[in-house]
Specification:
The chain is an alpha+beta fold and about 230 residues long. The chain contains 4 helices and 11 strands. It has helices at about 5-60, 85, 130-140, 190; strands spanning about 70, 75-80, 90, 95, 110-115, 115-120, 160-165, 170-175, 175-185, 195-205, 215-225. A hairpin with a 5-residue loop joins strand 7 and strand 8. The longest helix is centred in the N-terminal third of the chain and has 56 residues, at about 5-60. The protein is elongated. The protein starts with 6 loop residues before the first helix and ends with a strand.
């Protein structure tokens, strides 16, 4: 066997090159993991804030009419493609206004909708559609306005066996009422490409027209939506 000059140097160079490749891979995966963990922690912060808004909505729905932040049930609501989003918003102490979450940062938005309404779906069968239909069609393809999309009306079914009496002692039927909360957060564009995280929660409220001081509020369904 003959010994070649420089063989040890080649071995050292191969080892160093291999070590650099392994180090680069470890650094890449470590950095990626840290970024993922950081993003997950930030998203968790948004989720916690939205959870807080859900609890606030539940508390406001439970208040007796006339109390601060109490939500008044509206009767005879009619909505169409154009007026749906505004017409179905809840009333605060009998006044139609936006539900107040001003204590939260400006990137959070929320509305509560009264689902006891009738929907007028009439529109022209052929183009050009009426203005309301055109507005709805535009929203259908505009992901930025997904929180304004139409959802089904829910008329209040009778609570079997549960009744209440009015001031004259007459028995009145007690109904369930349904309300939809849509709360969303605008995420930073530099990290999350301007996407939005929305919580959509369907509430059922009991004890309508009853003598109880507060309503019973139940969460019927919950959805987390990215758009």
């Amino acid at each position: 066997m003959t010994r070649r000059n420089g063989a040890s140097l080649v071995n050292v160079m191969v080892f160093v090159l291999f070590a650099m490749m392994v180090t680069a891979q470890v650094f890449f995966y470590t950095t990626t993991s840290f970024e993922s963990l950081s993003d997950e922690r930030e998203i968790m912060g948004y989720r916690l804030m939205l959870d807080s808004i859900v609890r606030l909505a539940s508390a406001d729905l439970a208040l007796e009419e006339g109390q601060e932040r109490s939500i008044t049930h509206r009767n005879g609501i009619t909505a169409d493609y154009k007026s749906f989003y505004g017409n179905t918003q809840v009333a605060i102490n009998n006044m139609i206004q936006s539900w107040d979450i001003s204590d939260y940062p400006s990137e959070y938005h929320a509305t509560i909708h009264d689902l006891d309404y009738s929907f007028d779906a009439t529109f022209e069968p052929e183009p050009p559609y009426s203005d309301g239909r055109t507005t709805w069609e535009k929203r259908k393809y505009d992901s930025d306005k997904i929180y304004e999309k139409v959802f089904a009306a829910m008329n209040p079914p009778v609570m079997v066996g549960d009744v209440a009496t009015d001031a004259d002692g007459n028995i009145t039927t007690v109904y369930y009422r349904y309300y939809l909360l849509r709360a969303y957060a605008e995420l930073p564009k530099d990290k999350f490409y301007g996407r939005k995280l929305m919580y959509q929660v369907l509430f059922r409220r009991d004890n309508e027209n009853s003598s109880l001081a507060t309503h019973k509020v139940y969460m019927q369904s919950f959805q987390e939506i990215w758009f």
